[in-house]
Protein backbone atom coordinates (compact mmCIF):
# COMPACT_ATOMS: atom_id res chain seq x y z
CA UNK A 1 0.00 0.00 0.00
CA UNK A 2 1.48 3.35 -1.05
CA UNK A 3 1.51 6.29 1.38
CA UNK A 4 2.71 9.90 1.10
CA UNK A 5 4.98 10.48 4.07
CA UNK A 6 7.79 12.31 2.28
CA UNK A 7 8.38 13.95 -1.09
CA UNK A 8 10.76 11.00 -1.58
CA UNK A 9 7.70 8.73 -1.84
CA UNK A 10 6.73 10.53 -5.06
CA UNK A 11 10.20 11.25 -6.37
CA UNK A 12 9.26 10.38 -9.96
CA UNK A 13 5.56 11.26 -9.79
CA UNK A 14 5.55 14.92 -8.77
CA UNK A 15 4.72 16.24 -12.23
CA UNK A 16 1.95 13.68 -12.66
CA UNK A 17 0.32 14.77 -9.37
CA UNK A 18 0.68 18.45 -10.30
CA UNK A 19 -1.04 17.75 -13.61
CA UNK A 20 -3.92 16.08 -11.75
CA UNK A 21 -4.12 19.15 -9.47
CA UNK A 22 -4.27 21.47 -12.50
CA UNK A 23 -7.00 19.29 -14.00
CA UNK A 24 -9.03 19.47 -10.79
CA UNK A 25 -8.61 23.24 -10.72
CA UNK A 26 -9.76 23.48 -14.34
CA UNK A 27 -12.77 21.22 -13.62
CA UNK A 28 -11.54 18.54 -16.05
CA UNK A 29 -11.94 15.48 -13.80
CA UNK A 30 -15.18 13.50 -13.42
CA UNK A 31 -17.37 14.65 -10.58
CA UNK A 32 -17.14 12.79 -7.26
CA UNK A 33 -14.41 10.25 -8.14
CA UNK A 34 -14.10 9.24 -4.46
CA UNK A 35 -17.82 8.79 -3.90
CA UNK A 36 -18.49 6.89 -0.66
CA UNK A 37 -14.86 6.99 0.54
CA UNK A 38 -13.93 8.05 4.08
CA UNK A 39 -10.83 9.95 5.16
CA UNK A 40 -9.83 10.18 8.84
CA UNK A 41 -7.83 13.32 9.67
CA UNK A 42 -5.75 13.09 12.84
CA UNK A 43 -4.35 16.36 14.18
CA UNK A 44 -1.75 16.41 16.96
CA UNK A 45 -1.17 20.11 16.17
CA UNK A 46 -3.31 23.08 15.10
CA UNK A 47 -4.27 23.70 11.49
CA UNK A 48 -6.38 25.97 9.31
CA UNK A 49 -5.36 25.32 5.68
CA UNK A 50 -4.53 21.63 5.93
CA UNK A 51 -7.72 20.77 7.75
CA UNK A 52 -9.98 22.81 5.49
CA UNK A 53 -8.31 21.77 2.22
CA UNK A 54 -8.62 18.06 3.04
CA UNK A 55 -12.12 18.35 4.48
CA UNK A 56 -13.54 20.48 1.67
CA UNK A 57 -11.48 18.53 -0.87
CA UNK A 58 -12.93 15.21 0.29
CA UNK A 59 -16.44 16.65 0.16
CA UNK A 60 -15.86 17.86 -3.41
CA UNK A 61 -14.51 14.42 -4.37
CA UNK A 62 -17.75 12.86 -3.13
CA UNK A 63 -16.46 11.38 0.12
CA UNK A 64 -16.49 12.25 3.81
CA UNK A 65 -13.72 13.47 6.12
CA UNK A 66 -13.60 12.97 9.89
CA UNK A 67 -11.72 15.51 12.00
CA UNK A 68 -9.98 13.72 14.89
CA UNK A 69 -8.15 16.02 17.24
CA UNK A 70 -5.53 14.62 19.57
CA UNK A 71 -7.46 16.15 22.43
CA UNK A 72 -10.51 14.05 21.65
CA UNK A 73 -9.25 10.64 20.57
CA UNK A 74 -7.60 7.96 22.70
CA UNK A 75 -4.26 8.51 20.93
CA UNK A 76 -3.91 11.66 23.03
CA UNK A 77 -4.41 9.55 26.19
CA UNK A 78 -1.68 7.10 25.24
CA UNK A 79 -3.38 4.47 23.06
CA UNK A 80 -0.57 3.11 20.86
CA UNK A 81 -0.36 4.56 17.40
CA UNK A 82 -0.20 1.01 15.98
CA UNK A 83 -3.55 0.06 17.55
CA UNK A 84 -5.08 3.31 16.34
CA UNK A 85 -3.84 2.61 12.80
CA UNK A 86 -5.20 -0.93 12.75
CA UNK A 87 -8.60 0.15 14.09
CA UNK A 88 -8.95 3.07 11.68
CA UNK A 89 -7.84 0.90 8.76
CA UNK A 90 -10.96 -1.20 9.29
CA UNK A 91 -13.31 1.77 9.18
CA UNK A 92 -11.95 4.33 6.72
CA UNK A 93 -10.25 4.33 3.30
CA UNK A 94 -7.39 6.73 4.01
CA UNK A 95 -5.79 8.68 6.86
CA UNK A 96 -4.25 12.13 6.84
CA UNK A 97 -2.14 12.77 9.91
CA UNK A 98 -0.49 15.92 11.27
CA UNK A 99 1.94 14.60 13.84
CA UNK A 100 4.56 15.89 16.21
CA UNK A 101 7.09 13.15 15.38
CA UNK A 102 7.75 12.07 11.80
CA UNK A 103 8.75 8.60 12.98
CA UNK A 104 5.32 8.13 14.51
CA UNK A 105 3.83 8.56 11.06
CA UNK A 106 6.31 6.10 9.59
CA UNK A 107 5.30 3.56 12.28
CA UNK A 108 1.65 4.36 11.73
CA UNK A 109 1.95 3.71 7.99
CA UNK A 110 3.66 0.34 8.61
CA UNK A 111 0.67 -0.82 10.65
CA UNK A 112 -2.07 0.54 8.41
CA UNK A 113 -3.28 -1.17 5.27
CA UNK A 114 -4.73 1.97 3.73
CA UNK A 115 -2.90 5.05 2.34
CA UNK A 116 -1.46 7.42 4.97
CA UNK A 117 -0.89 11.06 4.03
CA UNK A 118 1.52 13.29 5.94
CA UNK A 119 -0.23 16.58 6.75
CA UNK A 120 2.95 17.95 8.43
CA UNK A 121 5.48 16.49 10.82
CA UNK A 122 8.63 17.89 12.38
CA UNK A 123 10.53 16.64 9.31
CA UNK A 124 8.35 17.31 6.26
CA UNK A 125 5.25 18.94 4.81
CA UNK A 126 4.90 17.24 1.39
CA UNK A 127 1.31 18.35 0.72
CA UNK A 128 2.33 21.98 1.18
CA UNK A 129 5.23 21.50 -1.23
CA UNK A 130 2.90 20.14 -3.92
CA UNK A 131 0.58 23.15 -3.60
CA UNK A 132 3.62 25.43 -3.70
CA UNK A 133 4.97 23.96 -6.92
CA UNK A 134 1.51 24.16 -8.49
CA UNK A 135 1.67 27.87 -7.67
CA UNK A 136 5.16 28.20 -9.20
CA UNK A 137 3.97 26.35 -12.32
CA UNK A 138 1.02 28.74 -12.69
CA UNK A 139 2.97 31.95 -12.10
CA UNK A 140 6.22 31.06 -13.87
CA UNK A 141 5.12 28.53 -16.49
CA UNK A 142 8.10 26.25 -15.80
CA UNK A 143 10.63 25.20 -13.16
CA UNK A 144 13.67 26.67 -14.90
CA UNK A 145 14.34 29.45 -12.41
CA UNK A 146 15.97 29.96 -9.04
CA UNK A 147 13.95 29.19 -5.90
CA UNK A 148 15.27 30.80 -2.71
CA UNK A 149 14.11 29.88 0.78
CA UNK A 150 15.01 32.26 3.64
CA UNK A 151 15.07 31.41 7.35
CA UNK A 152 14.58 28.19 9.25
CA UNK A 153 15.67 24.95 7.55
CA UNK A 154 12.51 23.31 8.89
CA UNK A 155 9.86 20.82 7.73
CA UNK A 156 8.59 23.12 4.96
CA UNK A 157 12.14 23.83 3.79
CA UNK A 158 13.01 20.11 3.73
CA UNK A 159 10.05 19.24 1.52
CA UNK A 160 10.63 22.22 -0.78
CA UNK A 161 14.28 21.29 -1.22
CA UNK A 162 13.28 17.75 -2.23
CA UNK A 163 10.46 18.79 -4.54
CA UNK A 164 12.60 21.40 -6.32
CA UNK A 165 15.24 18.71 -6.85
CA UNK A 166 12.57 16.37 -8.28
CA UNK A 167 11.45 19.08 -10.71
CA UNK A 168 14.97 20.17 -11.64
CA UNK A 169 14.56 23.66 -10.16
CA UNK A 170 17.67 25.27 -8.62
CA UNK A 171 17.14 25.64 -4.88
CA UNK A 172 18.98 27.90 -2.46
CA UNK A 173 18.51 28.03 1.31
CA UNK A 174 19.71 31.16 3.09
CA UNK A 175 19.84 30.27 6.77
CA UNK A 176 22.06 30.60 9.83
CA UNK A 177 24.48 27.65 10.10
CA UNK A 178 22.69 26.37 13.18
CA UNK A 179 19.36 26.05 11.34
CA UNK A 180 20.34 24.16 8.21
CA UNK A 181 17.88 21.64 6.76
CA UNK A 182 17.97 17.98 7.81
CA UNK A 183 21.25 16.31 6.79
CA UNK A 184 19.71 13.16 5.33
CA UNK A 185 17.27 15.25 3.31
CA UNK A 186 20.12 17.39 1.95
CA UNK A 187 21.89 14.21 0.80
CA UNK A 188 18.78 12.91 -0.92
CA UNK A 189 18.09 16.29 -2.52
CA UNK A 190 21.66 16.46 -3.85
CA UNK A 191 21.31 12.98 -5.34
CA UNK A 192 18.01 13.84 -7.08
CA UNK A 193 19.19 17.29 -8.20
CA UNK A 194 22.28 15.75 -9.79
CA UNK A 195 20.08 13.42 -11.87
CA UNK A 196 17.98 16.37 -12.95
CA UNK A 197 20.89 18.75 -13.68
CA UNK A 198 19.85 21.23 -11.02
CA UNK A 199 21.60 22.64 -7.96
CA UNK A 200 21.13 22.79 -4.19
CA UNK A 201 22.92 25.66 -2.45
CA UNK A 202 23.05 26.27 1.29
CA UNK A 203 24.44 29.63 2.38
CA UNK A 204 24.24 32.15 5.19
CA UNK A 205 24.66 35.05 2.73
CA UNK A 206 21.14 36.45 2.20
CA UNK A 207 22.12 39.01 -0.42
CA UNK A 208 23.99 36.51 -2.55
CA UNK A 209 21.03 34.14 -2.25
CA UNK A 210 18.54 36.82 -3.29
CA UNK A 211 20.39 37.75 -6.49
CA UNK A 212 18.43 36.97 -9.66
CA UNK A 213 15.87 34.85 -7.81
CA UNK A 214 12.58 33.92 -9.47
CA UNK A 215 10.86 32.73 -6.28
CA UNK A 216 11.26 33.92 -2.69
CA UNK A 217 9.87 31.75 0.10
CA UNK A 218 9.90 32.00 3.85
CA UNK A 219 8.20 30.40 6.85
CA UNK A 220 7.80 31.33 10.51
CA UNK A 221 10.93 31.48 12.64
CA UNK A 222 9.16 29.65 15.47
CA UNK A 223 7.39 26.52 14.26
CA UNK A 224 4.80 24.64 16.30
CA UNK A 225 6.75 22.93 19.06
CA UNK A 226 9.66 25.44 19.00
CA UNK A 227 7.93 27.97 21.26
CA UNK A 228 10.42 27.56 24.13
CA UNK A 229 13.19 28.84 21.82
CA UNK A 230 11.20 31.83 20.54
CA UNK A 231 13.37 34.61 21.99
CA UNK A 232 16.64 33.04 20.79
CA UNK A 233 15.21 32.33 17.35
CA UNK A 234 14.06 35.92 16.90
CA UNK A 235 17.65 37.03 17.47
CA UNK A 236 19.19 34.30 15.30
CA UNK A 237 16.94 34.94 12.29
CA UNK A 238 16.75 38.73 12.31
CA UNK A 239 19.05 39.13 9.27
CA UNK A 240 16.99 36.59 7.33
CA UNK A 241 13.80 38.65 7.20
CA UNK A 242 12.41 38.94 3.67
CA UNK A 243 12.31 42.68 2.99
CA UNK A 244 12.17 45.06 0.03
CA UNK A 245 15.96 45.39 -0.09
CA UNK A 246 16.15 41.67 -0.98
CA UNK A 247 13.30 41.91 -3.49
CA UNK A 248 15.34 44.62 -5.25
CA UNK A 249 18.18 42.12 -5.77
CA UNK A 250 15.93 39.46 -7.32
CA UNK A 251 14.49 39.31 -10.84
CA UNK A 252 11.92 42.00 -11.52
CA UNK A 253 9.08 39.46 -11.65
CA UNK A 254 10.10 37.53 -8.52
CA UNK A 255 7.14 36.04 -6.65
CA UNK A 256 6.93 35.94 -2.86
CA UNK A 257 5.52 32.80 -1.23
CA UNK A 258 4.78 31.71 2.34
CA UNK A 259 3.00 28.56 3.53
CA UNK A 260 1.14 30.63 6.18
CA UNK A 261 0.40 31.39 8.94
CA UNK A 262 2.80 34.35 8.76
CA UNK A 263 4.00 36.86 11.32
CA UNK A 264 4.35 40.22 9.63
CA UNK A 265 7.38 42.08 10.95
CA UNK A 266 9.25 38.86 11.75
CA UNK A 267 10.14 36.57 8.83
CA UNK A 268 8.68 39.01 6.29
CA UNK A 269 7.78 42.70 6.23
CA UNK A 270 4.18 43.79 5.56
CA UNK A 271 5.50 45.69 2.56
CA UNK A 272 6.57 42.42 0.92
CA UNK A 273 3.84 39.98 2.02
CA UNK A 274 1.07 42.47 1.19
CA UNK A 275 2.91 43.93 -1.82
CA UNK A 276 2.77 43.34 -5.59
CA UNK A 277 5.12 40.33 -5.66
CA UNK A 278 3.14 38.31 -3.14
CA UNK A 279 1.12 35.28 -4.34
CA UNK A 280 0.30 33.91 -0.88
CA UNK A 281 -3.45 33.60 -1.38
CA UNK A 282 -3.14 31.81 -4.74
CA UNK A 283 -0.74 29.51 -2.91
CA UNK A 284 -3.20 28.93 -0.06
CA UNK A 285 -6.04 28.22 -2.53
CA UNK A 286 -3.80 25.70 -4.26
CA UNK A 287 -3.73 23.62 -1.08
CA UNK A 288 -7.29 22.60 -2.00
CA UNK A 289 -6.49 21.59 -5.59
CA UNK A 290 -3.23 19.86 -4.65
CA UNK A 291 -4.77 17.96 -1.76
CA UNK A 292 -7.61 16.76 -3.98
CA UNK A 293 -4.96 15.48 -6.38
CA UNK A 294 -3.15 13.68 -3.55
CA UNK A 295 -6.33 11.98 -2.32
CA UNK A 296 -7.37 11.05 -5.87
CA UNK A 297 -3.91 9.67 -6.68
CA UNK A 298 -3.37 7.66 -3.51
CA UNK A 299 -6.95 6.61 -2.79
CA UNK A 300 -8.09 5.85 -6.35
CA UNK A 301 -5.58 5.93 -9.18
CA UNK A 302 -2.88 3.85 -7.49
CA UNK A 303 -5.42 1.29 -6.29
CA UNK A 304 -6.96 0.64 -9.72
N1 LIG B 1 0.38 25.90 5.71
C1 LIG B 1 -0.30 25.10 6.57
O1 LIG B 1 -0.07 23.88 6.65
O2 LIG B 1 -1.25 25.75 7.27
P1 LIG B 1 -2.08 25.17 8.49
O3 LIG B 1 -1.12 24.98 9.64
O4 LIG B 1 -3.10 26.22 8.76
O5 LIG B 1 -2.69 23.85 8.09
N1 LIG C 1 7.01 25.25 9.94
C1 LIG C 1 5.67 25.51 10.39
C2 LIG C 1 4.70 25.29 9.29
C3 LIG C 1 3.28 25.53 9.62
C4 LIG C 1 2.35 25.28 8.48
C5 LIG C 1 5.37 24.63 11.59
O1 LIG C 1 5.79 23.46 11.60
O2 LIG C 1 4.74 25.11 12.54
Detailed description of the structure:
With about 300 residues, the protein is of the alpha/beta class. About 40% of the residues lie in helices and about 15% in strands. It contains 12 helices and 9 strands. α1 crosses α5, α3 (about 80-90) packs across α4 and α6 (about 155-165) runs parallel beside α7. The protein starts with 13 loop residues before the first helix and ends in a 5-residue tail after the last helix. About 50% of the residues are buried. Norvaline (NVA) binds next to α6.
Please render the helix and strand layout as text.
Layout lengths: L13 H12 L12 E6 L5 H12 L3 E6 L11 H9 L4 E5 L3 H10 L4 E3 L7 H15 L5 E5 L4 H13 L2 E5 L8 H13 L4 E4 L2 H5 L4 E4 L11 H7 L7 H4 L7 E4 L11 H4 L6 H20 L5
Parallel strand pairs: 1-2, 1-3, 3-4, 5-6, 5-8, 6-7, 8-9
Helix pairs in contact: 1-5, 1-12, 2-12, 3-4, 5-6, 5-12, 6-7
The protein binds phosphoric acid mono(formamide)ester and norvaline (NVA).
Amino acid sequence: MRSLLSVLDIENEVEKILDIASDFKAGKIEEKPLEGQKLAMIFQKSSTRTRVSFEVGMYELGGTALFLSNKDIQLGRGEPISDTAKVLSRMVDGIMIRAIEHNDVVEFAKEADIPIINGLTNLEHPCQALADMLTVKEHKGNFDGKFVYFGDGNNVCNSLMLICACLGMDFTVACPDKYQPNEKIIKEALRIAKNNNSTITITSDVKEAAKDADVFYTDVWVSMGDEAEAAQRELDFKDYQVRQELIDLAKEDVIFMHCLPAIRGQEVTSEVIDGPHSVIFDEAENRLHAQKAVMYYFMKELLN
